[in-house]
Amino acid sequence: MKTRFTNLLFVVPTRNRADLAIHAVQSVLEQGHDEATVVVSDNSTVDAESATLLEFYQKSSNDRLRYMRPSEPLSMTQHWQWAIEQVLEQYDASHFSYLTDRMVLRPGEVGKLVELAKSHPLKVISYNHDRLVDHMRPIRVEQSAWTGEVFKLPSSTLLNLTAGAFLAVPALPRMLNCMAPRSVLCAIHERHGNVFNSVNPDFSFCYRCLELEESILYYDKSPLIQHALHRSNGASLERGMPNRDHVDFLTHVGEGKMTQFTYVPQIRTVGNTVLNEYLLVKRQTKSVKFPDVDRELYLESLAGEIERIQDATLKADLWTVLNTHGYVRSKHRMARLKWLLSRLRSPRSILNALLMLSTSSFGGAIWLALAHRTGIRPPRLNRLEFDTVEKALSYAVHLSPRKARTPGHLYYLGKPSSLQRVT
Length: 423
What we know:
Elements: E1 8-14, H1 18-29, E2 36-42, H2 47-59, E3 65-68, H3 76-90, E4 95-98, E5 103-105, H4 109-119, E6 125-133, E7 139-142, E8 150-154, H5 155-163, E9 178-181, H6 182-192, H7 201-212, E10 215-226, H8 233-239, H9 244-253, H10 270-285, H11 295-307, H12 312-324, H13 329-343, H14 347-357, H15 363-374, E11 383-386, H16 389-398, E12 420-422
Parallel strand pairs: 1-2, 1-4, 2-3, 6-10
Antiparallel strand pairs: 4-9, 5-10, 6-7, 6-9, 7-11, 8-10, 8-12
């Protein structure tokens, strides 16, 4: 088993999104790094899409690009598993990552990721991503605070956050936001019989990884830019407005399997599908590392997701379901607020928490109360607006917020002084 770095291999799994996949591939190849390889795994069902990808590959003169295609279309999870089996067998890489076709890498970041893999060849290294909210107009660019530092995070810390229904944690390693050594992938396969399983292959990997590994490393930066939300299965589910990709996704998995292991399986939201993977791995492994999910925080998390659904009929139906499971708005929101306050250690962490709350289900109410009682107004959020995708993507790729002096934005991981920095 490899104990040193040899090559970083990016798998680009794609299905009927040839134009996006080509953009993702180019974001790696244009950086010209000899120690990074890209393998496009084409799971398309439309012949024209496959033809476009194959033509792009055949015309490319870059020997760091490869193309492969399963013998028949697969579900998302089956495709991810098929692809990882192929690359583990056919390529001599030491490190692997999935670059989804709706993400691009910022210039210079391939070299930085290679450098990190060389310095820590046996560790899973996760990182953040920024995004374009480009399914509506005007287009917004949302960028995260960052320090560029690397932190060692105990798996128990990340598992405790999930048990507390705090799911917006960039550090959770999901293969599409991390580099995994061959040794870790093989260990997961040996323990479970595959690397990816269930409905959400990214979170299936995440919790299997955290069960096996005592810690991971987190690169506190956003090497990736996510875009094309109108083609996103998850964003479609979040809005409660199915797009063609979500409909295609459901034809292979069925709605019932998305949340079958959760406490309120009738509510099919992004967060509840994540909890489904956590609870499934907890059940399968019987590991004491997985705390029980806090029911009050879980119900409040579902309430926040329901509030963001745009389909009025679906939204009303889900509220009815949640209320039948004992949800009481004032009680459960107070539980969430108490949990959040328990994580705050400094004025900077409080400010970052308020920024996060500004876009949450009850953040608006908090800001209104502050404004009414104290005159304090919310700070301008980092949501720059553009009239075209090209302008927004160009900005996001080439410019990022000013480097933060302290990791106060990671307040949910503990006091900044207690975070273990890695050199």
